[in-house]
Amino acid sequence: MTDTPLLIADGLSKNYGNRIGCRDVSLEVYPGEVLAVVGESGSGKSTLLGLLSTELEPSAGRVSYRLRDGRLADLASLGAAEKRLLMRTDWGFVRQNPADGLRMAVSAGGNVGERLMAVGWRHYGHIRDEALDWLAKVEIAGDRIDDDPRAFSGGMRQRLQIARNLVTRPRLVFMDEPTGGLDVSVQARLLDLIRGLVAELGLAVIIVTHDLAVARLLSHRMVVMRHGRVIETGITDQVLDDPREPYTQLLVSSVLAA
Amino acid sequence: MSKPSLPILSVSGVAKTFILHLREGARLPVVNGAGFDLYAGECVALGGPSGAGKSSLLKMVYGNYRVDEGTIRVRDGEEMVDVASTSPRRLIKLRDTTMGYVSQFLRVIPRVGARDVVAEPLIHDGVPPEEAVARAGALLARLNLPERLWNLPPATFSGGEQQRVNIARGLIAHRPLLLMDEPTASLDAANRNVVVELIAEKKRAGVAILGIFHDAEVREAACDRVIDVTDFAKAAA
Questions:
Q1: Which domain holds residue B119?
Q2: Whole-complex ipTM
């Protein structure tokens, strides 16, 4: 872990008409650290992820990001081309529904290879080899490389989405409920895979989840959101084992122990 | 043994009360005015009856529970870091380099085999994976965990087997300060003795150990002194 933040959010707010999506959120994410954003539906956590990844435009506040050359850039000041390059190369975005993050009518190999081509890979053989390598990393058999994800199970699609996102070695990955909607046994496999890859590649991750067990397993630090605001932050085990805010105590005590 | 002048851990004026917002803000006092020092090469037991706050105090030192008042200063090289007030990121770094924690129960990670669970802290320290896994196997062998279990995830292990995995994971890497919460609770006599030996080796390596040891024999064999937390608990009530 280094001591210069990779991403800095400063006073982020987002209103949807009169409704508040997100209010005055400031946070920092450092290289190699996993930050969990937890809260219930409607707490503003997905809005926050949209703002941090520049998919949404803030009503107030800004997001700064440290580019590979070390420069800290206000993301709103980047041109469209610069932003697109950043999203293709330096960032990943793993969505809850794999159909939103994959090209469903393109082969598994194509889904992974497309990101490589976007960063300038041209040699077909090299692209195919790298795609095969990544399919193996996410535990998809090599003989499925020419199948398209419509033929895959939910868990396989999600693993393919992870390969597609990580193949360009991003420094920051956004994840929106990556295990939501999967069977429990499939979740465990996916979590273990994410955990291993994040550590191996030294990724910074901002993960939105309503599942506190997922946050505990994957994240170093967490922020708890309610009504669009961050109400509690800290080291993950501290927030979960000694929650201070009434709402966080309610969240933690509402989890059923299996 | 003559004590070096600088403590590894220095706890001073620590107070903690849980406030249960879901129980009309009920207050559960834990400790008040807790203070003691811990030096390199000694093993100190927290003593007192169940519910006196031993485990909570240990968790406060690790930064797992928050502190309302006072300081918990841990030596990190030339620096003393106050766990009670430092930033989350500094605390994570302090845990990575300086503090080890052996909890009562293993938090099982799905699908990861026992030997890999144990090797993880070494790999995190930068030890080559092959060497880390070999050392993990050696330590598990010492703790009499049958080799046929090494590649299996500990979820299905017995309590005693899980605890040995947990101890191995907590002890495998060098950390100047070790916190142990009932490390021998579900172990048989032979394995308790192995843990006592391991503790003695850590002490010889200059590690300072703070722990909860309910087993009187283990406490006698492993610990140099006992800090009674009853007074800290009384002051809080």
A1: 107-174
A2: 0.91
